[in-house]
Amino acid sequence: MQCRFCKTELEHIFIDLINSPASNSFLTKEQLNEPEVFYPLKVYTCSKCFLVQVDEYKKSGAIFNSDYVYYSSFSTSWLEHSRRYVEMMTKRFHFNQHSQVIEIASNDGYLLQYFKQKNIPVLGIEPTANTAKAAEEKGIQSVVDFFGEQLAEKLIHKGIQADLLLGNNVLAHVPDINDFVAGMKIILKPQGVITMEFPHLMQLVGNNQFDTIYHEHFSYLSFHTVKQIFEAHGLEMFDVDEIPTHGGSLRIYAKHKEDNSKPISDNVSVLLKKEADKSMLDINYYNDFQQKALNVKLAFTKFLIEKKEAGKKVAAYGAAAKGNTLLNYCGIKNDLIDFVVDANPYKQNKYLPASHIPVVDELHLKQEKPDYVIIFPWNLKAEITAQLSYIKDWGAKFVIPIPELSFM
Questions:
Q1: Same domain, 367 and 390
Q2: CA–CA distance, 291 with 146 (Å, rounded to integer)
């Protein structure tokens, strides 16, 4: 296997999470008696460019199909994050009714709706037809397709180019990262701005976030590596923000290399130095991650077995992809966790892949009154613990399994 950026042979295993189905392949009741397809989930580190990457066993077209169940608008904190982003970008770069904003992986229009409210022209690019339809219903024009050089060429032939090209949590999802970044170079106006947000590899390693690894995420990114990839395609970083979303993410700002209208922020060199000081440019930095994950597996399964033996009822909140990674790596089934609550009606009345834990609405939680509620999307724990604070009325506790088992 070769590195998907620099084509170096990959020999260094970052972590092996064994086998699991695609994390968002929820099951209907009828499918519970049918065979499930499991794919290897082994992640490698490139010894040359330090791109951490999963082998592409699960094809992107099979993951992001018309039944994709992730809708961004069901998280209030994510909506607020998006609204603040739109305010900040509009103020900083003076976008107006003459600008063109294009979002790659626009999902259900969760973010573009805020630009639209300001009468700034928007276009969404979204490969999943059902979420794109939800965006169209909000009045947001959407192209149902995967982004890359070919689509970029099609759009510029229609006279469509971006003053702002953005993508939140998509850069890690693309199997051909060279084609993707080359497409951004094509569709960006001469003085246009690119922003991309993605989980920071430094936080993943430092905070033991192995549950953020799943087949939909082909790459796990440092600033150093992303800067290399963009430069290889004629794009230059001119700023970067460290932001708290998804357990610690980066928001990068890029421009055409030949665009001299934007000064390079000191943030760029500061973050590069921070990563170097953490030894992220040394292959040994990536060595101990397997053991960290195993420690979580042992503690989490021990907790569940002990509570089952004591006759306690354990439920979970958030039918998130990261929860499925954790469950499948630990080998946990529906005999140890009774149900998982999720606000997304597209997930309710279905079952988690492999573990077959039923997904229910919040009313079920209030009726069953479990002793423990595991929070799978730990990045939203403040939002979730506030929303479900009433479980304290019957003496229940919240359980956070990552970065180590803790209780609230």
A1: yes
A2: 36
**pLDDT of 251-288, one tens digit each?**
999 999 999 999 999 999 999 999 999 999 999 999 99
Tokens encoding 340: 């998982």
Of 272, 192, 299, 268, which is closest to residue 235 (Cα–Cα)? 192
Q: Could you tell me if residue 146 is inside a domain?
A: no
Q: How many helices (H) and strands (E) does the chain have?
A: 13, 17
Please list, in sequence order, all residues whose beta carbon lies within 8 angstroms of the beta carbon of residue 67, skipping any fewer than 6 positions away. 130
Q: Which of 230, 125, 131 is nearest to 182 (CA)?
A: 230
Say what the pTM is.
0.91
Q: Report helix angle 223-232 to 266-277, nearest 10.
A: 130
CATH value at residue 318: 3.40.50.720
Query: Residue written as tokens 């479990």?
Result: 370
Concatenating the DSSP letter of every residue in 269-328 gives: HHHHHHHHHTTTTSGGGGSSHHHHHHHHHHHHHHHHHHHHHTT--EEEE---HHHHHHHH
Cα gap 334→32, rounded to integer Å: 12
Nearest to 193 by CA among 155, 154, 166, 156: 166
**In terms of residue numbers, what domain contains 230?**
1-64+198-287
Tell which wins on pLDDT, 189 or 383: 189
User: What amino acid occupies position 71?
Assistant: Y
How far apart, in whole angstroms, are the C-alpha atoms of residue 330 and residue 147?
A: 35
Q: What are phi and psi of 11, to 5 degrees?
A: -125, -20
Q: Which residues pair with 331 in a beta bridge?
A: none
Residue that is last in its domain, among 252, 287, 322: 287
Query: What is the C-alpha to C-alpha distance for residues 367 and 370, in angstroms, rounded to an integer?
Result: 9
Q: Alpha-carbon distance 47 to 361, whole Å?
A: 45
User: Tens of pLDDT along 308-365?
Assistant: 999 999 999 999 899 999 999 999 999 999 999 999 998 999 999 999 999 999 999 9
Q: Can you say how many angstroms the Cα of residue 359 is from the centroid of all Cα atoms in its chain?
A: 21
